[in-house]
Design goal:
The complex is a heterodimer of chains A (445) and B (313). With 445 residues, chain A is α+β, with helices and mostly antiparallel strands. Chain A has twelve helices and 15 strands. In chain A, the strands form three sheets. An eight-stranded mixed sheet of chain A has the order 5-4-3-6-2-1-7-8. The longest helix of chain A has 33 residues, at 328-360. Mean pLDDT of chain B is 91; it is low at 7-11. Chain B is α/β, with parallel strands linked by helices. Chain B is built from eleven helices and eight strands. The chains are: A alpha+beta (445), B alpha/beta (313).
Chain lengths: 445, 313
């Protein structure tokens, strides 16, 4: 056909509505906010790869009217903003931030669309400055025009004072459900918890995050350690799975007994993607040939850190709320996790049994429990010894003969008669003496 | 409950004895991968150590480890240890297999008294997670269908967990040798699943493969299943081919089992048949009054058939 016949064209281009719907539907509100925090953290990582974050801060403000996040993490260069930051998806030619946690080029936009109708982004670097201000509803009304526009743009700044460098994002005209959530104290608490856990690693390296003016606390990831009791720790490097190396560190051991907190914690480039997992996504039951999570295992903690310059190689999902369990790398690491976990579970089973025996009175004390009490809670960063989980070795405590309890009812008159004959005053003594009598007369040879 | 070594003298279980000899014959072919003497052998020797004795004498394997869960009778096991080269490891196989070093090529025979359950799968897991290519794994379990009708599926699920049961398995699939068939499939899946995990990061051409070699069924009072095979690296494929395991008549790479059947014959009959074996082409073996089926069974296993004098005296 030489002439293009419009009637032969079938429309297949996406509508903006579908786009927004698809993008925002699968992400919980809290995660959308975490994505914005991730962008700030990436900014800091770009400036201080792997190192000290103590000069950086991120401030979050969250009210029923607006949401704001600002940071001093370097700002967004104009070229990045123009060609990449606001685009949907990450173009193949874009240079990656080594060790970044922003992976798919959807985070920031998705968060804007999830939260409200108006967003403003102001960003200043050492040489440039821009402002983008947009109303989502207006943008939707122009189906063919996908672009955003700079409101202010200056690419030739000089001597920008350091305190001016950074990014400020403001989202207003919040959607009703978002605004309502932001008004709830428990939602805000949950959000703070999630930020604290998700960024425990960078916060431990000095990044200060505040929420409505209040600094968020540091979470420590720790394991019990003593001379006799040592957590498992291994480190592996995977060099053949992609253009960059993936480093994996796995720690497994015991910590405070807490049913909710027991399980695996998985981090990708320092960002927690799985918290206290107790399912077969990690190593519990299902097709893993391992036991299901259980109260006896509430002491268990495992920490897995995947790190790579190339974030694409890490086994996380786009929402960073989980692990891509089909990843070949993850499947392999999971075998290592199982290997490290099993001796810990064996130990915890023995511990539970000893505690039960103490309760029954079969043994006086649990040596294993004492060894756990003697161990000190130690930050994972201070655990340097590599190897499998080491447990104290004790010879089994000798048990007395097993005893059982007999209880029965008999006519009171008969018991009284026996009391007299036996010369005792209690029912218990009647039972014991008659039992002893029978043993002596009928069972001894 | 008594341990099975107290109930059964392993030396005189004929089918087991035949199986042991068949396994041993096939082990010899591993020499393509590395000297058979250099292999490790790990098993459950019990007090009889029949497999240990036989493999040491036949193959000169010297790195031998016997795992013994009965920690209270150490003296008895030490006393019965037939050769100095057998090392004892006391504890449950779940515990010990995790601790052993699997860097050298190994023949592991997990010869359980009991049925397939979570613990068995865990042992398979411990080994396959670490195993060196060129190693063999063999698993024997009791595969007698549960006695109580209508509860077999439920019991299987309780024993291994529902996610381990092959798709489409029903109560009726667990009749007769059906239980053995399902057990074999579960074991096969387990090994493959672990190797898939290890292969996730291995490059093309270096992936680990599992090739089933054994799928024995026999009855020694109860129906028994022995299955297993070799784990090698794709690059070792030519070595595997050179082993020509397939030339051995009892090698079974699929789910169809090889049945070891014990003919009912007297010594005189056995001697008479031996004189005419291996059979000339076209010749038929008969003894008047002896069922032909027994003679045919004997012909299949005569090279491995135990004579009473072979009992360890």
């Amino acid at each position: 056909m030489s002439v293009i016949d419009e009637s032969f064209t079938i429309k297949a281009s996406p509508t903006k509505e579908l786009f927004i719907y698809m993008m925002t539907r699968d992400i919980p509100l809290i995660r959308a906010i975490l994505d914005l925090v991730d962008n700030s953290v990436d900014g800091a990582t770009r400036l201080q790869p792997g190192g000290d974050y103590s000069t950086f801060w991120v401030r979050i403000e969250c009210t029923e009217e607006h949401f704001a996040i600002s940071d001093n993490c370097g700002g967004i260069p104009i070229s990045t903003a123009r060609d990449y930051a606001f685009r949907f998806g990450r173009p193949k030619d874009m240079e990656l931030t080594p060790g970044s946690i922003g992976k798919f080029g959807v985070g920031m936009k998705r968060s804007f669309f999830k939260l409200g109708n108006k967003f403003t982004v102001k960003s200043t670097t050492s040489t440039s400055k821009f402002v983008v201000e947009h109303y989502v509803r207006e943008w939707l009304e122009k189906p063919e025009d996908w672009h955003f526009k700079f409101k202010v743009k200056n690419e030739s700044l000089k001597n920008v004072p350091e305190q001016k460098i950074g990014t400020q994002i403001l989202i207003e005209e919040l959607f009703e459900s978002v605004s309502k959530s932001f008004g709830l104290g428990n939602f805000r608490k949950e959000l703070c918890d999630e930020i604290e856990t998700a960024h425990a690693v960078v916060m431990a390296k000095g990044l200060a995050i505040s929420f409505n003016g209040r600094p968020l606390g540091k979470r420590t990831l720790s394991l019990y350690k003593s001379d006799q009791l040592k957590p498992a720790f291994i480190e592996k490097r995977y060099e053949n799975i992609g253009p960059a190396v993936v480093k994996v560190q796995i720690y497994a051991g015991i910590s405070d007994r807490d049913f909710e907190k027991g399980g695996w914690y998985i981090f990708c480039n320092g960002r927690m993607v799985l918290e206290a997992d107790q399912t077969d996504i990690t190593t519990w039951g299902g097709s893993n040939t391992t036991p299901k999570y259980h109260p006896d295992f509430a002491f268990f903690r495992g920490y897995v850190f995947f790190d790579s310059e190339d974030a694409e190689l890490l086994p996380w999902t786009t929402t960073k709320t989980g692990i891509d369990s089909d990843s070949g790398l993850y499947k392999n690491v999971k075998l290592e996790m199982i290997t490290l976990m099993r001796p810990v579970l064996d130990f915890l089973r023995k511990l539970a049994k000893e505690r039960a025996d103490v309760e029954k009175g079969d043994i006086d004390k649990s040596l294993l429990e004492e060894s756990v009490k003697k161990a000190e809670s130690t930050n994972y960063l201070d655990l340097k010894d590599k190897g499998a989980f080491i447990t104290p070795k004790f010879d089994p405590i000798p048990r007395g003969p097993r005893t059982g309890r007999i209880q029965y009812n008999k006519p009171v008159d008969d018991i009284k008669k026996l009391k007299k004959i036996l010369g005792v005053t209690t029912y218990t003594a009647v039972g014991e003496k008659t039992f002893d009598y029978f043993m002596r007369m009928e069972c001894e040879e | 409950m008594k341990a099975s070594y107290e109930k059964i003298n392993y030396n005189i279980r004929a089918a087991k004895c035949i199986e042991r000899k068949m396994l041993c014959e096939s082990f010899r072919r591993l020499s393509v991968f590395g000297k058979i003497e250099s292999y490790n052998y790990v098993g459950f020797g019990s007090t009889y150590f029949s497999d240990f004795s036989f493999f040491h004498k036949s193959l000169d394997i010297r790195n031998m480890i016997s795992i013994e869960k009965d920690e209270n009778n150490k003296d008895r096991f030490e006393f019965n240890r037939p050769f100095r080269c057998i090392k004892m490891e006391y504890g449950s196989s779940n515990e010990i297999l995790q601790k052993l070093n699997w860097d050298a090529r190994t023949i592991l025979w997990l010869d359980y008294d009991g049925r397939l359950n979570q613990e068995v799968l865990l042992d398979i897991n411990s080994f396959c997670t670490k195993v060196t290519p060129g190693s063999l794994i063999i698993i024997s379990v009791n595969a007698e269908p549960g006695k109580e009708l209508g509860t077999r599926f439920q019991k299987l699920r309780d024993a291994v967990g529902h996610k381990k049961i092959p798709e489409g398995t029903r109560e009726k699939d667990l009749l007769k040798w059906g239980t053995a068939k399902v057990f074999r499939a579960i074991i096969y899946n387990e090994i493959m699943q672990i190797l898939n995990g290890r292969n996730g990061v291995r490059s093309q051409g270096n992936k680990l493969c599992y090739r089933q070699l054994f799928n024995f069924n026999y009855s020694d009072g109860a129906k028994m299943l022995t299955t297993g095979g070799i784990i090698y690296d794709e690059g070792q494929r030519p070595l595997f081919d050179r082993c020509s395991f397939r030339d051995l008549l009892y090698i079974r790479e699929e789910d169809e089992a090889y049945h070891i059947e014990i003919p009912n014959l007297t010594f005189k009959e056995i001697r008479y048949l031996d004189e005419q074996l291996p059979r000339k082409q076209g010749q038929t073996l008969t003894i008047s009054g002896v069922r032909q089926a027994d003679i045919n069974k004997y012909e299949k296993v005569y090279r491995y058939f135990p004579a009473f004098t072979e009992a360890n005296l």
